[in-house]
Design goal:
Blueprint lengths: L1 E4 L7 E12 L2 E10 L11 H8 L2 E5 L7 E4 L4 E4 L11 E9 L2 E6 L7 H4 L14 E14 L7 E9 L4 H4 L6 E6 L5 H17 L1 E5 L2 E14 L1 H8 L27 H4 L3 H13 L3 H11 L23 H19 L2 H13 L21 H18 L7 H11 L4 H22 L6 H21 L7 H4 L1 H10 L9 H13 L8 H19 L19 H8 L15 E2 L7 E10 L14 H13 L11 E12 L5 E7 L3 E6 L3 E14 L5 E17 L2 E6 L9 E3 L10 E4 L15 E5 L25 E8 L3 E3 L6 E2 L25 E11 L12 E8 L8 H14 L6 E6 L10 H14 L3 E6 L11 H10 L4 E2 L6 H9 L3 H10 L1 H10 L1 H11 L3 E2 L2 E2 L1 E4 L3 H8 L16 H4 L3 H10 E3 L3 E5 L16 H5 L19 H4 L10 H10 L10 H5 L4 E3 L6 E5 L6 H11 L11 H11 L9 H11 L1 E2 L11 H5 L35 H6 L21
Parallel strand pairs: 4-7, 9-13, 25-30, 29-35, 30-31
Antiparallel strand pairs: 1-2, 1-6, 2-3, 3-4, 3-5, 7-8, 9-10, 10-11, 12-13, 14-15, 15-16, 16-17, 16-19, 18-19, 19-20, 20-21, 20-22, 21-24, 23-24, 25-28, 26-28, 27-32, 28-29, 31-37, 33-34, 36-37, 38-39, 39-40
Helix pairs in contact: 7-8, 9-11, 9-13, 10-11, 11-13, 12-13, 13-14, 14-16, 21-22, 21-28, 25-26, 35-37, 36-37
């Protein structure tokens, strides 16, 4: 137990429990489990009694499985050691553990926790050993299994095997690294057999000196993990078998609650120290009957297992084996599924099973209908990978017996038979997904979380659907597999797959025995084979005076015979018909091509091998291999198969096969993982006279659809943009992915499947141990890199305080950092006159595929004064031009993505003119500006940058510098930004000095922002656009219309500009949500300039299409189906809604202020964000108002909507309320018969006069509905003192004819909640 200090913790010192010392690249770190004080407990546990115990030193341990419970720290962060135990002492004590159960915090006793190894496995080393001796620490894994030796006469042998657990996973998977300890004879006792082993292990636990490589060394060894079948594993743990009342070796769950999802596993788990107490209680029982009763109560044997004489944690070190568990579940599910099928279903199942596209390297599976009882574990696991798709191809209600179908419907509470069949498929899908994750070779934190979710889902769906899985022990172990995975890093580290292979070899020897002394004969054969393997590997027998080289010089034929023995490592087979070729990489060796074929017989290759394209791509392949030249006219020879050995990350070479027609993954530097089908394998002779192997591939592209959780791919229709010839070395990850055809109907056997869509199976365990090929450096589809994608938005205004009164930049209620030795003064309010607006632009790093994240790229930030540098479209485009011009990122295609604010609303003429100016200034070939739909600004990736800026601005106070006395007095008279602008016209120095006074907070913010980063890319700040720069961009518009001036902002202003209208009609496309400018591409065009990009590339760039529905109008067509076609905006959803709204009638009574007061509620349009007023002839009661407010929270309103349709919907839904007289739907229907909204309004209409005349609501902009930013009196608003309604800064500039208000219009000082 320690006290440590972490820099990221605000409270400084923390308490923790040291779990381990980690070595991370020769840098040591400490793994700490958090210890909590009383104040760190959840609020519900802060009782008076715990407070008093905390005063006496009680602490609480946070369960290590909870989030943030484990933390690594630097050794120098440790302050001191402390003494914390379960008893009261000076430093503190712990009696309870905080953990979560069903997402609720709970406390359990400290005794219900696995002890640290140092608490039960303290080793006593041999005495008087030299301190200079090297020390070797080993842990030995033990595996025990029984097997019947004969078919007709039962004669059982028990095989006991050991292995060094220190080996890497790759080494532990070699058969030669498994050693048989001996065979337990028929009728013999495991306890008697294992006693000599235990005696020697006890010596090794204390340490024993050996001579290793001629040097005396100290060897310490202890038992590692003990694995066995489910029942034998219970025996080795001392727990009764799973048929007992409490037959789980990891917990004390009863057998009738094995699959109860409400089990609190932390409470009922078996812990080694608690089991020790239970065994002592059994031994203290006086009579045998009492001992049996106590043992039955705990689910234990009456005697401790013999392995308890060794130091171990019996429950953690005897994990459940994932191979046996998964294969058992699959075998049971297969039996249940086959028994469900009708005679027709069995026939269709066999048809689908026979014609399914299995991986080429799989051996033939037994018939799953008639021979499923003879399935090996590997057969079951392989069948589970493909079973969901086999069933999905044929399974219909008619394929299942009616009685079985009814049972499933009843158990799952579904009415439709088709849903029941899908549930059967979902059961196989759940077990396949769980298996794929369980057999991964490495785990991260997310994998542990996913594994827990998959296991819970598998247990729930299997136990609910089928009675056979209720309280199944194999399914109950799902509760414990996550703990096993965390204990041993992965589940395959405790699996017995390879051990079972060694066990199977011994079983295969039994029929050749003389049936007298079976165990003796088996041991002789095993020892002989082991000796032969040792000698053939070139080993030396120390009993001989010289090395025996006879076996190493055997002829090739004898070597081939002996290479088929299980004990000899596989060597490449010699083939007289194979062609040896060279490789250019070190991790691929012994590359051979087999089964040569003629060019005319080499399938239908998508590229002509005599074409210039083929020769060009072949030359690129040589360039990838670092060869600068090659005779591309040399002949090529085609083959069906390529074999080679590739090196994994552990340094082991594994043999692989590549066939034509295989699906491969190519790890490409620019695009990441890409999938393709091998069309051809061929050889070509280089200039150095060496043969090299190449492949021709056809690329897949991923669609947006999935089937059974697996993505659907299709072959690319236009492959001219994608390179197809590669060196074979770029696909050294083959056979790790399997694709199947996406079928609508089953084809007869031996008929080619005419599928254009493929499904990538994701039920294969991931294998991250293979080296990814990074030799391929081709550009692939370089057309993507002609595009620029920018995301733009303004952050909310940061307030800047007056001189001497700094204001928090981001949030109230936080401490503020100020300069040293300066007094901190706070004003009595936070109303400010000045501010700073950060404008954020992200130049996106375009990902390789649409599925990858666009949230990556370079972020640029400009800080501006909203008074004299207000945000408008022309300023934004000028600043974007500066960014692109200074970074040399001026590519011919530009895509902009912004929100729908006034400065980015693409339907506004001033925004369109700014975009045209940028298009002309950059000489773009295409510019598309897209805005987000209303209420969806969060989809703009740059919105996420704002949270990073907020982090940087936490606890920062901003204030401007002081002006001269005269100007400062003038500033005190100004109460709004408009007044400051007005005074600056008479006093020009005010503008310059005020901008200069803001430089100090701007410099502060720039320094903070430049220390922030996105994906390790630091933010870049730049100066806001000057008036000269803005004017320069505007002058680019004069190239097409010299009569334009900067005051032209509306359609009325430009309707007489003939040349501008001609350009607009020729190059522009305006829609509600996007605005596009595109050159025509004609060389002799006198309206737009010639294109900059490649003509072929430009010919494939089309206008952005509008949404077009499919035939039944239930959904919209895919983008690729409408791209390049002529579309209109007629199917835009909001346009269709407006067309329907125009057909409706207006409200039947006049919209007076009194009718507004009868309701007192406004509703916001989700399209234009304007507030619309609700009317009623009669006053609503408070109860009706509350009902109405709650209902309005559940709907989305747009201008022109009528409540008449809502009345119909509410009345229709009332019939589904099951007669509930107190339902709110009854009241809502009646309320909407009284409450009306003006359905004649559209989004372009200003705010209603009755909004103001009612006197209920706060003042907003008459034109756009924007709430004023400055908290000051209404007389200080722009134009208010002149008798006009309030207009915001933007609308005050753009609206020429402003609306005058009545003399008696008053507004509420406090805000009313709007809906």
């Amino acid at each position: 137990m320690i006290i440590y200090n972490r820099k990221q913790d605000n409270n400084g010192r923390k308490l923790g429990r040291l779990l381990a010392i980690l070595n991370d690249n020769n840098s040591y770190k400490l793994k700490i489990q958090r210890i909590l004080t009383y104040n760190e407990l959840p609020r519900q546990f802060r009782s008076n009694s715990r407070f008093q115990r905390a005063q006496q030193g009680e602490l609480w341990l946070l369960d290590r499985n909870e989030e943030n419970a484990i933390t690594p720290i630097e050794p120098q962060a440790v302050i001191r050691h402390i003494n914390i135990s379960q008893e009261l002492n000076a430093d503190g004590y712990i009696n309870e553990i905080l953990y979560k159960y069903n997402n609720h915090w709970k406390l359990r006793s400290i005794s219900l926790e696995y002890k640290h190894p140092s608490e039960y496995a303290a080793l006593e080393l041999v005495q008087n050993t030299e301190n200079t001796l090297p020390i070797y620490k080993l842990f030995i894994d033990l595996y025990y299994d029984d097997f019947g030796t004969f078919r007709n006469v039962y004669h059982s042998l028990g095989g006991v095997y050991i292995q060094f657990g220190n080996m890497t996973l790759a080494m532990r998977q070699h058969l030669r690294n498994h050693f048989i300890l001996g065979l337990v004879p028929f009728g013999g006792s495991f306890d008697e057999f294992i006693k000599p082993f235990i005696k020697e292990m006890k010596q090794l636990e204390r340490g024993k000196i050996f001579e290793i490589n001629g040097q005396r060394s100290l060897v310490i060894a202890s038992i590692g993990q003990i694995t066995a079948d489910l029942p034998q594993g219970n025996d080795l743990t001392g727990v009764k078998r799973h048929g007992a009342t409490k037959g789980c070796r990891s917990c004390q769950a009863t057998k009738d609650s094995f699959t109860d999802t409400n089990l609190d596993i932390a409470i009922i788990s078996r812990y080694h120290h608690n089991t020790e107490i239970q065994f002592r209680e059994i031994n203290l029982a006086i009579t045998t009957t009492e001992q049996k009763n106590v043992a039955t109560n705990y689910g234990l044997h009456t005697k401790k297992p013999i392995l308890d004489f060794l130091i171990r944690e019996r429950h953690l070190q005897t994990p459940q084996d994932i191979y046996h568990l998964t294969a058992g579940k699959i075998q049971r599910l297969l039996n249940v599924t086959i028994n469900l099928l009708s005679q027709e279903g069995e026939k269709k199942f066999l048809d689908s099973w026979k014609c399914f596209e299995y991986p080429r390297r799989w051996h033939k599976l037994p018939n799953p209908v008639w021979h499923r009882e003879s399935f090996m574990m590997s057969d079951s696991l392989r069948l589970a990978m493909v079973m969901p798709f086999i069933l999905n191809r044929f399974l219909q209600p008619s394929c299942i017996k009616s009685s079985n179908l009814a049972t499933i419907q009843q158990r799952c509470n579904v009415n439709r038979a088709s849903v029941a069949t899908k549930i059967v498929i979902n059961c196989w899908e759940a077990i396949a997904k769980t298996m794929a994750l369980a057999f991964k070779k490495s785990f991260n934190e997310n994998d542990y979380i996913s594994l827990k979710q998959y296991l819970e889902n598998e247990m729930m769906i299997l136990s609910q659907t089928f009675e056979e899985f209720n309280n199944l022990p194999n399914l109950h172990t799902n509760f414990h597999l996550v703990k096993n995975a965390k204990t041993f890093a992965t589940l395959i580290n405790s699996a017995v797959g390879t051990k079972e292979m060694v066990h199977k070899i011994l079983k295969g020897m039994v029929p050749k025995m003389n049936k007298k002394k079976i165990e003796l004969d088996l041991m002789k054969r095993y020892t002989t084979l082991f000796a032969l393997r040792y000698l053939i590997d070139g080993g030396v027998d120390p009993r001989l005076s010289r090395t025996c080289n006879g076996f190493t010089n055997l002829s090739n034929n004898l070597t081939r015979i002996m290479s088929d023995w299980f004990i000899i490592e596989e060597h490449p087979e010699s083939d007289d018909n194979e062609t040896k070729v060279h490789t250019n990489v070190e991790n691929i060796i012994k590359l051979s091509l087999k089964r040569r074929i003629l060019v005319q017989n080499s399938r239908n290759i998508s590229i002509d091998v005599y074409s210039i394209t083929f020769q060009s791509e072949l030359m690129k392949s040589y360039s990838d291999m670092n060869y600068t030249a090659a005779l591309i006219h040399n002949r090529v020879f085609f083959y069906e198969i390529a074999t080679y050995f590739y090196e994994d990350v552990h340094g082991s070479f594994n043999k692989n096969y590549l066939h034509t027609g295989d699906i491969v993954m190519i790890q490409e530097q620019n695009y990441g993982e890409s999938y393709a089908i091998v069309e051809a394998i061929f050889s070509h002779r280089g200039n150095n006279d060496n043969l090299y192997a190449f492949v021709i591939v056809q690329w897949f592209e991923e669609t947006t659809r999935t089937k059974l959780g697996c993505p659907i791919y299709k072959l690319r229709a236009n492959t001219n943009q994608w390179r197809r010839v590669f060196p074979l070395s770029v696909i050294n990850l083959v056979n790790r992915t399997h694709f199947i055809h996406d079928l609508l109907k089953i084809c007869p056997p031996n008929i080619p499947i005419p599928s254009v869509q493929w499904i990538r199976l994701q039920f294969w365990p991931k294998n991250p141990t293979h080296k990814s090929s990074v030799q391929f450096t081709g550009n692939g589809n370089t057309f993507t890199y002609e595009f620029m994608v920018n995301f733009m938005d303004d952050k909310h205004r940061c307030k800047v305080g007056e001189p001497g009164y700094p204001v928090a930049a981001v949030e109230r209620g936080r401490q503020v950092i100020v300069s040293k030795n300066k007094a901190f003064k706070v004003a009595d309010h936070d109303f400010t006159k000045c501010g700073i607006i950060p404008s954020v632009t992200m130049l996106c790093e375009i990902p390789a595929t649409i599925e990858e994240s666009f949230y990556r790229g370079q972020v640029y930030i400009s800080l501006k004064d909203p008074i004299f540098q207000p945000s408008d479209s022309l300023r934004h485009m000028t600043e974007l031009y500066k960014i692109l011009n200074n970074t040399n990122e001026n590519k011919p295609y530009l895509l902009l993505y912004t929100d729908g604010g006034p400065d980015h609303r693409v339907t506004y003429v001033r925004v369109q003119l700014a975009l045209i100016a940028l298009f002309l200034k950059l000489d773009l070939d295409l510019l598309i500006a897209v805005r987000t739909p209303p209420g969806h600004s969060w989809k703009n990736p740059v919105e996420r940058i704002m949270s990073i800026l907020n982090l940087g601005m936490q606890s920062i106070g901003l204030m401007r510098d002081e002006l001269s006395n005269d100007l400062e007095n003038l500033m005190k008279k100004c109460n709004s930004m408009e007044e400051i602008r007005t005074y600056s016209k008479d006093e020009p120095q005010l503008k310059n000095e005020l901008i200069n006074s803001l430089q100090a907070p701007i410099n502060l913010m720039e320094g903070i922002f430049e220390r922030l980063s996105l994906k390790d890319e630091p933010f870049i700040t730049y100066k806001s656009a000057t008036e000269e720069e803005i004017k320069d961009l505007w002058e680019s518009l004069l190239e097409i219309e010299d009569s334009l001036n900067m005051d032209d902002r509306t359609k009325k202003d430009i309707k007489d500009k003939a040349k501008l209208q001609e350009f607009y009609d020729h190059c522009c496309k305006s829609r509600h949500y996007f605005f596009q400018i595109k050159k025509c591409g004609a060389i002799d065009c006198n309206i737009c300039k010639p294109i900059r990009s490649d003509e072929l590339d430009f010919s494939q760039v089309h206008s952005l299409p509008d949404p077009v529905p499919i035939a039944d109008k239930t959904n919209y067509k895919q983008f690729e189906d409408v791209y390049g076609t002529i579309t209109t905006e007629q199917y835009r959803p909001s346009l269709l809604n407006q067309q329907q709204k125009k057909k409706r009638a207006h409200i039947e009574f006049g919209p007076t202020a009194q009718f507004v007061r009868n309701v007192g509620i406004v509703i916001e349009c989700c399209e234009c964000n304007k507030w619309r007023v609700l009317y009623s002839k009669s006053k609503l009661s408070p109860f009706e108002v509350s009902i109405l407010e709650r209902y309005l929270d559940t709907i989305q309103y747009t201008c022109g909507d009528s409540f008449e349709a809502l009345v119909e919907n509410v009345e229709q839904n009332e019939s589904n309320i099951n007669g509930d007289e107190n339902s709110e739907h009854d009241y809502v229907g009646e309320i909407f018969k009284k409450v009306k909204v003006d359905d004649g309004l559209i989004c372009n209409n200003p705010t209603e006069i009755s909004y103001y005349s009612s006197g209920l609501f706060e003042e907003i902009c008459f034109q756009c509905g924007k709430v004023p930013e400055d908290e000051c009196d209404e007389s200080d608003r722009p134009n208010v003192n002149e008798g006009f309604y309030y207009y915001c800064d933007e609308c005050h500039t753009t609206v020429s004819s402003k609306k005058k208000r009545g003399k008696n219009t008053k507004f509420q000082v406090s805000k009313r909640s709007r809906k």
